[in-house]
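Q: Got a minute? One more chain.
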Amino acid sequence: MKKILLGLVFLLIVNNIFAQTIGTINGVVKDKNTQEVLIGVVLKFAGKDTINTLSDDN
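A: Always. Here it is, folded:
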């Protein structure tokens, strides 16, 4: 039983290690009307896998 539990924990840890290695998104998010740069915008990209990311002020 301990080996099965240890194996499951290991798989969960390995999955989380590689979860953030999809790629890089670069660009600027601006308001359509004022062209003001927006900070803290949640971006969603739909496709085979849904990708969510958060913009910052850099």
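A: Helices lie at 2-17.
Q: Perfect, thanks.
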